[in-house]
Write a structure and sequence with these properties.
The protein is mainly α. It has helices at about 5-15, 25-40, 45-55, 65-70, 75-85, 90-100, 105-120, 120-140, 145-150, 175-190, 195-205, 210-220, 220-225, 230-240, 250-265, 275-285, 290-305, 315, 325-340, 375-390, 400-415, 420-430, 445-455, 460-470, 475-485, 490-500, 510, 515-520.
Length: about 525
């Protein structure tokens, strides 16, 4: 299987998460690669440009909770506003925010939110480093060229040194081409070719390499010509320089985990959900006797079942009150978005409709296809997803005990909404998790500190963490300070990325945390 297809598929989810047109990253990759080639860069550098481009926006969900909080829940258009301007220019940023962010909110609320954003503009610069780190974490899991990893810290470096005072000579050539390619792609898609040319010319010498900008403007038609040759995804795949990079089945789980972590970072309420559903589905699948290959596909599909939520605003994902009819329809479109995103490239499209079946029901009462769901794997996934949603906190819905969740699934089984055999397997799997040895934690962290990290990643305050873990606020603060000292990172987003990279707060089976065990086993 071609690596470009897999990462390109995930890049479409990145487009959704940043409010960009679906496929804009693919177009940007073609343009950036064409620019690098036309500029005279060698094949190795062109290949690095191609793959670096695909990771450009996969780190953006790391600040999803913060973006949603600052932008009245409109995290996706908040990200888009920053991408549509030179955001170190406060007047340009203010205009972009007012033109497209939180348009349905009250004028006074918008003015207050935008005023806060502009007032704390310098603090937002630190978010860029978090984005780069998440992209690097994802890229390091895959067999990408070494020079791609070397580009990750510079993904948002500016030609004028406005971020981090990076010298122009330090910015890798692939990154310079990628920055220009994505500006050109986004403006062409949203505002037309002339607007794209004007924006490139305006930002040359500021955040963009002026020599490369001049070369693109002088050779525009030649560099853009491949985009006229076929479907967007096919053109993107064909644009890979040199021999394609292929991967085997051993990397399918890593790719699926990237999809899971990408979406679960978007909201503080979602952290670890996809990994937990995958683990529970896998155990339940073993109980009902699903064969090895279909079982692996079930686990990977479970990791990806929520990736369509990248296309849903946090104002809906985090809303505690009941959704209106219109909001409910918008929210439920995440299942269709999952199907759409994963339909593009292997290995994801080989999973068929399985990943997008988590909200379907045995009797046809689910969504988005509203069809009776008869396959065992589909029904196991649906039951496992529902169980995990019930036993962990959600907006407006405190976590149920294991007994309450068991009663709810049993009732759903009796009513015909869930397949009885699938429910029985999931409940058995949830009550009897596989016994595994505790693995050593990184940085010399204690088990209690690992618990605190999981809470910090959900943006819980010191009093909330203390109440959840049954310890004093003073003891909690001691653990927090110890975590900062041992890991060298601070802040929710940085802690969340650390948790992802080191498997903290994601798989209760591996870490066997007392708190999570009590919730799952009702002990």
């Amino acid at each position: 299987m071609r690596l470009s297809e897999a990462i390109g598929t995930l890049a479409i989810a990145g487009d959704c998460a940043t409010g960009r047109p679906r496929g804009a990253c693919l177009t940007g990759s073609v343009i950036a690669t064409g620019l690098a080639r036309s500029y005279g860069l060698d094949e190795k550098t062109c290949k690095a440009t191609y793959y670096t481009s695909l990771f450009r926006f996969l780190g953006c969900t790391s600040s999803g909770p913060e973006a949603g909080s600052m932008a009245l829940g409109d995290d996706r258009r908040f990200s888009l506003a920053f991408l549509l301007c030179d955001w170190l220019d406060l007047s340009a940023l203010e205009a972009a925010l007012k033109a497209g962010v939180a348009l349905d909110a009250a004028p006074d609320a918008r003015d207050a939110a935008f005023g806060t954003i502009l007032e704390h503009h310098d603090a937002i610069k630190g978010i860029v480093e978090i984005h780069c780190e998440q992209s690097r974490t994802f890229a390091a899991r895959l067999p990408v060229p070494a020079n791609v990893l070397q580009c990750m810290p510079y993904l948002y470096a500016r030609w004028d040194g406005g971020l981090g005072k990076v010298g122009t000579e330090d910015i890798p050539a692939p990154v310079r081409a990628v920055s220009i390619g994505h500006v050109a792609a986004l403006y062409c898609r949203l505002r037309g070719v002339q607007a794209a040319k004007d924006e490139i010319a305006n930002r040359a010498g500021r955040d963009l390499d002026p020599q490369m900008c001049a070369h693109l403007l002088a050779n525009w038609d030649v560099i853009f010509a491949p985009l006229e040759d076929g479907s967007e995804f096919d053109v993107f795949v064909a644009a890979e320089p040199g021999s394609p990079i292929f991967f085997g089945i051993e990397h399918c789980e890593a790719l699926s985990l990237i999809g899971a972590d990408l979406v679960d970072q978007k909201s503080e309420w979602m952290g670890g959900h996809s990994r937990r559903v995958s683990a529970l589905s896998g155990r339940a699948g073993q109980i009902v006797g699903i064969a090895e290959q279909p079982l692996m596909e079930l686990r990977h599909s479970a990791l990806l079942h929520d990736i369509g939520k990248c296309a849903i605003d946090n104002r809906l994902l985090n809303k505690a009150a009941d959704l209106s009819h219109a909001e409910r329809l918008e929210f439920e479109s995440h299942s269709f978005q999952t199907e759409y995103i994963l339909s593009h490239g292997d290995p994801f499209r080989t999973f068929g409709m399985l990943p997008s079946s988590a909200e379907e029901r045995f009797d046809g009462s689910g969504y988005h296809r509203h069809m009776e769901q008869k396959g065992m794997r589909e029904n196991v996934l649906a039951a496992a997803n529902l169980y995990d949603e019930l036993v962990f906190d959600r907006p407006g819905h405190p976590a149920m005990s294991a007994k309450e969740a068991t009663d709810h699934l049993t009732e759903q089984s009796k009513s015909g909404a869930l397949m009885p055999n699938a429910v029985a397997a999931v409940l058995q799997a949830a009550g009897s998790p596989a016994k595994t040895a505790r693995k050593a934690l990184p940085f010399g962290l204690s088990r209690r500190e690992a618990q605190v990290i999981a809470c910090l990643a959900r943006s819980e305050t010191t009093p909330q963490i203390a109440a959840r873990l049954g310890i004093s606020a003073k003891t909690t603060d001691h653990h927090v300070q110890s975590i900062y000292t041992k890991t060298g990172v601070r802040g929710r987003a940085a802690i969340a990325i650390l948790a992802i990279e080191h498997g903290l707060g994601s798989d209760e089976k591996e870490l066997a945390w007392d708190v999570i065990k009590r919730k799952w086993l009702n002990r």
